[in-house]
Batch of 2 targets.
Target 1
Amino acid sequence: MKYFPLFADLENADVLVVGGGEQAAQKVRLLRKTEARVTVVAEAVTDELWQLGEQGAIWIVPRNFEARDVEGQRLVYAATGNRVLDAAASAAAKAKGVPVNVVDAPELSTFIMPAIVDRAPVTVAIGTEGAAPVLAREIKSKIEALLPANFGALASRAQGLRKLIARTVPNARARRRLWERLLLGPFRRAVLSGAASEADRILGAELHGGAGLPAVGRVSLIGCGPGDPDLLTLKALQRLQEADVLVVDRLVNPQVLEYARRDAERIFVGKTPGGPTTSQAEINRVLVREATAGKIVARLKGGDPFIFGRAAEEMAALQKAGIPVDVVPGVTAAHACAARVGLPVTLREHVRQFSVVTGATADAELALDWQALAAKGTAFAVYMGVGNAPFIRRNLLDAGAAPETPVVIVENGTHENERAVATTLQDLTDCVAQLEISGPAVIFVGLDWTDAGLERPAAVTVYRRQRRPANSRTHPERALTAKVDP
């Protein structure tokens, strides 16, 4: 370890920034999060720094750096972009024993700046000893994703309780267990959700031996997106980290589970078309059972819970049982798949309406407003429509849709085995059959790249059914051979 990590107390401390450009402004922005008195020495400064000086937030000395400027400073930053001037500031600081940081010059510095995750009073500093700042930024982004934006509120609340808890619970072991219950349990969730009165109630109950604490846990209905784990929201990641139990749908990418706690129990409730299925009633019972036992449950669903995800049924069952439940939205498959292949779902002057419909139903007949869907200027995405592709095609054509209406099918969207095919409404049935499209797929109808002035991506296959000439005597079945453009 070349650099020893420390946190400097800058309350009422003087800090010098040498330089007035953008790099200096970046240092000032960071320093203003502390209680330091910041002085900027430079012949010219940015408008941002000038305004801060006018407001009295910093002190600006409009001249070149002089060695005497480092006297009495807690820290010195050199950010002039002029190596001669930066080296002079470094030498002056070192001569007075003042820690100095020179931007992009670790050889002139006595300390370096880490990547910082700011959840004050919780602060995480990440350093690579200047070897690979890009890796530090990667680590920072992962930590940022795991910590709620208001995580500091929990630490501040804990800081304010230290004396009270030390006085109320003198036994060290009991006090440690109390802190674990407060900072990892219902008190934590109440503070982070902004429920101050609920947090006070839980705190009072804990300090009186746990009387009156809620006996049940809670459930989060989490949208895990179409497959790519990088599309998870920050809140989804946070809920995964908190969960004691994961109730997992079939379409959830197994890689998503890697973000959960290793000790979290996993309950798989997949619904395989034509195969083993867990009924919705049984899933509801599992959620109620686990939450009633006091566990934190994450119900993981593909896409978004409120778009053909049956979240309303699960929410109703949980509310009826008196169990707290919240919904974490996810990136829905239609938008993710369209984005992956660069297919705009609305286009000015061309497509002013975009709908999302289901292509499957428990009823005998798929009842959709075919006239509205076939109208000119209308575009829509069909979920779970592969099995009913012939029915969808026939009804749209019967309702007046043009046979050449563009169709794009995205199979296994955002997964490694993703496949995208462009065809027409006339050829939809043959395309699905001959290309053996069977995985989870979204069928887009009425959208075309050319309408937006875009080129079709090379990765998108084009399917056209080979037409039989009028005078051909070829057997009809042979005339349906697919023509696929690479």
Target 2
Amino acid sequence: MKPASRFALPWQHALAMLGGLLVATGIPPIGWWPLVVLGVACYIVASERAGRRPRTQFLIALLFAWSWLAPAMGWMWHLVPGGFVIAPLLFAIFHGAAAATTTALVPRSDSSLTARIVLRVALHSLVECARLVVPFGGVPLAGLALGVADTPLAYLARLVGPIGVSFWLMLVGGVLAALFLQYDAKKTSGAVVRTNGRLVSLALVLMLVQLIAQFLPNGRETGETLRIAAVQGGGPQGVLAINTDPRDVTRRHLEATALVTTQDRVDLVIWPENTIDVRDFSTSKVRNEIASEARRIGAPIAVGVTEDVGDNFTNAQIVVDAAGNELSRYDKVRRVPYGEYIPLRSLLDALGAPVDRIPRDAVAGTAPARIEVPGPGETTTHPLAVAISWEVFFSARVNDGIAAGGQLVINPTNGSSYTGEILQQQQVATSQLRAIESGRFLVQAATTGYSLVIDPNGNVLRSLSIGEKGALVETVALRSGRTAYSYLGDVSVATGLAIIALLAVRRGRK
């Protein structure tokens, strides 16, 4: 292999940053997924050409990760400017530490190239695992798996979830990088180019894993269906709750619900998150309005309600029938940091941060992620898994509802605080992954878009665009059974990655 310089050269820094930009382009909203693999390959070539000193490798990886995450998290700038500055840099530092650890554990040599690439990718994937919980409960956005969410490559998520899919994509990029490095080294030396046997074996394993993934079980139909209307009120984006009249949101969704008629023969109407904001829903006028619509349509309505809890509030999805009875309720468990509550509020207030934009904190729920809706008999019900807005970015929240018997996944969400399509498109891809992982149909109901219906293979069957007012009416099959990943969860995936990293270290030091 061509000897690396002691320090990183400017072209190596530039190549690492190009790699990050390619990854950002490969995930939504642009979503040209082959660029994810190419971007990873560029980064690994840059790191292998640069010096092996830990701080040199740290900088290369930091530039790569920041160039990937900053554009892909650009939506933060409008909502939380400080978060946009801090979050991509924090996660880039984590990735830098992963690269520095790699070069410290496995020496640079031709024979250790494959082991070093596997170790590097495993450690970067463990950083992505850490992003599920750090900081403040995690920020699992802009993941590599989003790029392939609408392709059969995402079927691997049935076994290893989104982190496993990201690991697979990074390893494919690593194989491409290794092939280039070997070819370039042999071409420079004038020797005959022969591919490393371990590299060939790794490539074959990657292909075999994807082949198996296409036939993995993903649950089964129960034989029952629900005809669902997902209501989207439409309206402008980039609007904060403190600057709007909540009644305007409710009115828009009542108008959209009026588009659903008895001829649609629906079994359930779903309203998005935050469409009703009252002190006490049970005694409010709007509950009577919802009950009136339920009587007209002949089906219960699951509404997104924000109501007071002492000096704070709760974010819930409540099923209301024609008599105004609250049949079932789920309170959001995973809250949005700096969206629904302010971590370190007192400190930030003392520093002059605009904490008044979120004047009250949401109270986290504790119940399983599930609601019950009436079935065909007087005493039968259908359990549905619920992930309210932000929760859909966390596989564990959907898995919680599936483990509780959920036969369908619903995602009531409110995207009106954001501008552009970065977050909204990433949420669509995320919902596709959740459908694949759970083996369920998923219905997403959004205030301003996108509302959609997704089948268990991740295909978007119906959708409403951003800003559009309407109601999606679709019959979806109820399903039971669980995928392997639904049983395993992220902890098992992280454990597997740690074992792979340890085996790579052992192999690389031989």
